[in-house]
Amino acid sequence: MLRRHDDRLVKVSPGTLYHQVGRLAEYGLVRERGTERAGNRPERTTYAITSAGREALRAEVRRLIAEPTGERSDFRVGLAEIGHLSAPAARAALADRLANARAEREEARAAIRGIERVGLAERHWLDHTYGLAVAEAQIAWLAGVLERLDAGALAWEGSRIAGPS
Length: 165
Fold this sequence. Notes:
By secondary structure, the protein is mainly alpha-helical. The protein folds into 2 domains: 6-66, Orthogonal Bundle (Arc Repressor Mutant, subunit A); 74-151. It is built from 5 helices and 2 strands. A two-stranded antiparallel sheet has the order 1-2. Strand 1 and strand 2 form a beta hairpin. Helix 4 packs antiparallel against helix 5 (126-151). It is elongated, with a radius of gyration of 23 Å. The N and C termini lie far apart (50 Å).
């Protein structure tokens, strides 16, 4: 998981990992394969995925890819309410988001270069190329909004909520 940079998608810590492997074993999705010791390190238990575990994994991966989850995006919520900011404050926030998207794009490019050097098959890192494509689309969209805002082509009339400020 660390070699593929999956730790940016899910938190990977020894305590969480041990707990999750224990639960997988309880459900019969993995089984204990054996124990081994490397040098003077503590003994460690290794596990193997079971047939039921492999099928559960495949079913979950299919679901994650095929079904929209409707997860809430804080960014989209912010965009829905951006009219409550002054034009300069909105512009500054959008410019910060653009800078962050550019940094994400560079991180994705660097991760892809590193994974390519390791020789991992592309099917194992499609999430990185997807992240790169999303960052590039976001950069183009944000740059366009900022350009329209700077040119006065995006009207900014203040708050949509009537009443005292």
